[in-house]
Amino acid sequence: MSPPPCRDRRRPAHAPAARRGRADGGGGGRVMAAEACGRHAAGWALPLRPPLCLACAVGTLGDGGASLVRKKHALSRLRDALAWQALPVIRLLALDERVCASLVGALFGKSSLVPCQGEVLVHLVVELKSEQYLCYILDESQKELSKATTMRGSLPIFTLLGKLADAIPVFADILVVKHSNLVDHLPLGLMYPNEGVKAAVCYLYGKLYSSPVGTERLSAHFEEKLCGLFLNTLGHAQTKELQVNCLGLLKELLKSDHFVSILMNNSRTEEESENSDFLEGENPLPLVLKKFLLTRDEMLQAASSHCVAAVVVHSPSRYAPAFIHADVPEFLFECLLCNSEILIWSVYCCLLLLTEERLFFSKCHTVYGIESLVRSLQDVLQLNNVELHKQGLLLFTEILKRQPVEITLFTNRGICLDAIDVLMKTVDCPVLEVVVEAVKAVAAFLRKDHLSSPPVPYEKLQKLLEAVLKRCADLSPPQSSKNEEDSSLLWYPLCVCRLAVEFQSDPMAQENAFTAPGSESKETLSNFSEFLLRICDSLCIPMVMNYLERAVSSAVMEVFISALNTLFMVVPNMRIKFSKKLGMPSSLYLSALHSNPALNQACSRFLCNLCLSLYSATEKERISAQEEMSELLQKGLPQLNYTVAESLLLLAENPEAFSLDQSLCSHQHCFILLSYFAYTLGDRFVPEAELFLAIRNFLLSAQDRGDCPPPYILRAVLYLLAVCQDKGKGLDSRSLCTIRRILDNLPDLGLVYVHCPLLLEFFLRYPELMGRFGRQVLQLWFSWEDCSQTEAEEAGFGLPDQLSSANPLLPILKSNSSILLILLDLVCSSSVEVAQKVLLTLRTFLERSEDVLVCDLLRSRFLQILQQLLVESSSASLQANRNLPILLSLLFLVQLRSKGMRELDSTDFKLLHQVSNLCGKCRPRDTDLLQPSLNFLYWSLHQTTPCSQQRAVAVLLSNVSLLELLQKVLECTWTRSFPSEPAYLSPEDALLCSGWLLAASLLIYQHRYNAEVHQTLTLDLTEVLNAVIFRKKKPILLLVSIMQFLRAVLRQNFSSSLLVIVIQNTAHGATQPQPSSLEDAALHPLAMQQVCSLLVSLQNLLVHKDLLLSQAVVACLETLLEYLCVKNQDVALHVASQPWHRFLLLTLLNGGQKSVLQPEILRLMTLFVRYQSSNVISQKEISLILREAAKANLPELPEATSRALHLFLRQVRKDCFSL
Length: 1219
Known about the structure:
This protein is mainly alpha-helical. The chain has a two-stranded antiparallel sheet. Helix 2 crosses helix 5 (97-108), helix 38 runs antiparallel to helix 39 and helix 49 (906-920) packs antiparallel against helix 50 (927-942).
């Protein structure tokens, strides 16, 4: 073939070749510049810079005499033409096949041209798109390879064929189908000791095996000739070119399971695979790939890891052991500490496949590589590669999930903390897909064996858990998402709960060592468990419930219920609180009816645990009943596949038709228990009226067949009847008779008692039940009250008020006063704790009740009780009776309930007599008995008419033992030591107050009615005065009581048939001391010194500005001055004119304008005006009071102030008239 003929062979004068002659060795002076070429038509010119004549270029390449420089130049210009003007070139060449063939032959020539010769040929053949040129090249290549004496000369052929196979997809098929004999030359290239030749051959092999046709046609060739040579070449490759081409060929081969089996020598047995000795020599592929992982070339490492993955993906169980025995995972983990995203991705994929083999974990490769993985994840999170994030988390999750329990993964606590930090960062990722994978990783991480290295990082775990739950709440799956993805997010809380439960049995996790002695650490299991309950309550449960409201999913529901069920075991001592907080949603009962067996079982287990927890909250001591109920619920709940309406019908079902069906009774009892616990938590998923009727029918049916339900079932039945009774028509006589018969067969009513006001009202509502069981129910009510209050306070979940107060009993008492008699019996016969609670209830009732008949009824009952006690009991037994003080306190409350003056009837006098006799049998130290008794006697004297008062005084004065006791009580005042700072009035001090007040009242009324005295009181006057003069921190009320007694004595001028006054030392038989002065003689039995001391003490007490004390002090001053005025008027005026009185007055007036009109100050100034103490009170103070009185609104002034002001003004007017 020759180039096309030229039309004009004349050479232009300006052609460079013409001037140079043949010095260039070219073909007769021909040039390629189109503007200088006159030998070819203008159509052969290509618009390049400078322009190119295609005909000249082809001619130059085909001219054997052209110089090498010209040929290289022509080849370079032709390459540019094909690159920029390929279409015009191909059109020109297509006009004449001879030109094409000539050009192809010239380019395929074996003369040493520039390296781009093969590139131009490949480009040309590609653009020509003709199979004949491919066949020509293959034929010529076969000839050249056959004639080649060495493989080095075949390198250009192998390189050209590889490039053609790379550029033309069908070239490989043509080669292996029509020119298969050419393939036989390739193994020789692999045996030639030149890595360039080997690299070219491997590249060509890679292209051939990338074709499905080539893979099929060359299968036998690989098994018979290529496999061994290739593995040897791969193992000894030194240059990067050969290494890359070998790995490329291996990648193509590994796509076929047949080739993988050959390469991995899969004929060995599984036992042989466990033996690492078989790896050496017999199966070098894992070792060769491991060698590439040892290089520092990231590209080779990525290719090697990709090849490992390509092998293992065919069958991890068959091929992974060989790589694991070769320690390939160890070097894969080392490769993670790089910066190449491609390499990291390849390693992630490879390790993920290896995790499917158990040998990967048993050889502890994960223990070695977990640090590298965590570090890699820390670095990867800094990159903006979402897929890499997901793949890394997926690998981390699989390792965490598949790691054997007996092999600790995190042997270093620092790596465990770093892992938590990584999980925290991934949870905060804005990409939902990454968050989903992160949540899965956290769920896999929350295993006891992963966190067992002490100390457990509870605080970091809390932060992680809170972050995950908040993230899940923010990214809760939409309604259209798949159920599998929903349950994956919600699976996390279940793993958290299980982790806390597993820690319960680990002493190391509970103690959490490495805490300094004596210090408190927050890193404790109890704090973590309580946090878990709070976070589930505040985040997890609302999140799931919100999701279930939008989309009902069986998978989500099952996981959620399982998590709640596990929460019961997280903090055992908070199980009851959690149950009450959680409640019993009726949807759980409906979920139990679901056809999904797994959901049915989960709901049944949860309902069983919830019911048992609620039962143990009130029945802590009945373990046997709890075990029986647990067995019933575990067996019956999974089979309770009835609707609410069907279950109600079953309760009234005739048992005769089901006499052989034991499941009916189980279904009835399970439904009753579920209804009971639901109603206790406020869930009325069954209508009250329908449930009331069904429960009644259930009882009647049980009675008809002679069956008695267990106590815990009766307990639920009675509660449901009590709660639903307002919605029903009430129980008829038959139903009441049935309930009474059933309850009569019980050994203890407490077995079926529920502390609920509605149940109490239920028993007290029907006379048939109240007469038989009223007392027992009331006793149980008061016995349980404090326990219920304590539990309500501890729970802090807002329990109903009906369990924390006795007030619900008050309306019942108001409607049925006969219950009061039962309560009084309880006060007498029950424990002190119960009696105290009854007293509080009766006190509240008496404060609110205005029914006089109630008080009369109570007084009559009190009289009967006291008479019986005094007759049947001795003094010692009375003093040991702990309920008697409560009864007396209640009697005093009834006495206080009587307002105004009233005549005492026979019952009152009998009570007065009995109480006074009771006091006579007591000792002074019996304060709990004497205190309410003396108060009752005192109040009886004061709250009655004069006629009844006279008889009452006679009754008391006739009781010698009472007066003897009163004598002893008063003498205790001198012997008692009072605290330095009394914070409150002690029982002993209160008794002393009552004694002094009663003694003062007896003195006054004995003198007023001249009553007969059978026993006198003897008191030392000095001791009485010293009790006021030397106060010694006595309580204010005691000082007031003593001053009341002192006033009574002063008013009677120390002359009373009831009281014997003795002076100090005369009580022991000494001679009565004589007065030392005329004043003392006039004031006898007082001495002037005692008067002055008493006066100073009263002044000091007045400065305290205590209302009660001030009133008593002023009254005592008035009485004292009256006594002095009677005895010696001069002494009275002298005492009233003491200069200290003015200082006292100014001190009292210093409190402001409001102090002027205080009744105590007005009475004190009235006293000074009366005794003409001008040096104490002046016209200025009198004018001040008059001005303030003129400004005041007199009708609005208190009664005491008005009366004191009236007395003051009268005294001032009287004094003015006297002046």
